[in-house]
Amino acid sequence: MTRTILxxxxxxxxxxxxxxxxxxxxxxxxxYGGVRRSRVSSQAWKxxxxxxxxxxxxxxxxxxxxxxxxxxxxxxxxxxxxGLDREVxxxxxxxxxxxxxxxxIDVPKRKVKDDQAAPAPESSYLMFLxxxxxxxLAELTIEGAAGKAEVAVLKEFFRARENKARARELVxxxxxxxxxxxxxxxxxxxxxxxxxxxxxxxxxxxxxxDNESDYFTAVDDRNTDAETGAGMIGVVDFNSSTxxxxxxxxxxxxxxxxxxxxxxxxxxxxxxxxGFVTSLPTGKVxxxxxxxxxxxxxxxxxxxxxxxxxxxxxRAVVPLHDGGYVRAACEQLVRYVPELERxxxxxxxxxxxxxRVGDDAESLSALxxxxxxxxxxxxxxxVVELRLEAxxxxxxxx
Length: 398
Prior knowledge:
- The protein is α+β, with helices and mostly antiparallel strands and 398 residues long.
- Helix content is 37%, strand content 20%.
- It is built from twelve helices and 13 strands.
- It has helices at residues 42-56, 69-80, 86-101, 131-145, 151-159, 161-170, 177-182, 251-258, 265-278, 285-288, 326-344, 373-391; strands at residues 5-17, 29-32, 35-40, 63-66, 105-106, 122-123, 127-130, 198-200, 203-205, 212-218, 232-250, 296-302, 351-356.
- Strands 1, 2, 3, 8, 9, 10, 11, 12 and 13 form a nine-stranded antiparallel β-sheet that branches. It has a two-stranded antiparallel sheet with strand order 4-7. Strands 5-6 form a two-stranded antiparallel ribbon.
- Helix 9 packs antiparallel against helix 12 (373-391).
- It is flat.
- The mean pLDDT is 93.
């Protein structure tokens, strides 16, 4: 079966910054090719991409990942039944979620002050549900409670096998774009898991990197001229790097995850490409103001399997005589990619798109036609839509 896979390769320069720190507060690193590289975890960039979706998609097409899932559903119950008491709404929400997911939903054992409301029941782990799933569960809860606002009535409703099955079905359909892309794990009900349609690699620098430290002081604005000492001192670690970023999107898996009646696959693909390209983890961004965009983007449509180009940088790039890593990194890609594709017979892909900025990335024009981000997103979306139409309902191609 011919597959539809999108490979997204990015070169992005980040100035002194600490966008993804480890448990000691230092920028994450990794050894690759025998030298230490700057590293940004896949989790950090997936989170940044999901956050970017807030600008690209309607909230109804997105999900919510939280332990406070009962509170989230309770708000929807009160919206459907404005006279519903908050505490009752939380109890009803918790009962529906226990039935639908098989998960423990309990009130956390932490002290609250006398003037604070009792904490809402929480799940024991982050639960990822789409806006559509929450709305459907809210409607089922109201139906099951039958206007009684009593948990006992709702429990009796869910004792009926068909009603329990309806609750399970509601959390296993109408997946949001972010759930369809990044997947979902339900520890207490593996049949509700959603296999991720996209894989995101840890971004690594194409060159060797050493972390540095910034010793800083802050002045107390109320100090007099006689008080010359610092009000605060500290140290923050940072590094700067040119990162190679890579993600692979299995369009067929995404199409299956979204299912009929969900967000169109083309729209989800376009949102992912733009969101992944333009997103940036926000660690220490107020300290460093490191807002950059990629210097080079290569998108390839594959029909067999995803292929990363990270091996092009197994030998760390060294700075040119006048400084800079981007030009040498692009030239390494131009040498490596055609050889790789010829060696494995994968050079006949249906599409390659290049977006580049500046003379340093000019050599990349040898890999495919150049475009800009807007046209890249539209072109990729159009090709994906055509391939899905050609595949038909079965999703397979000759």
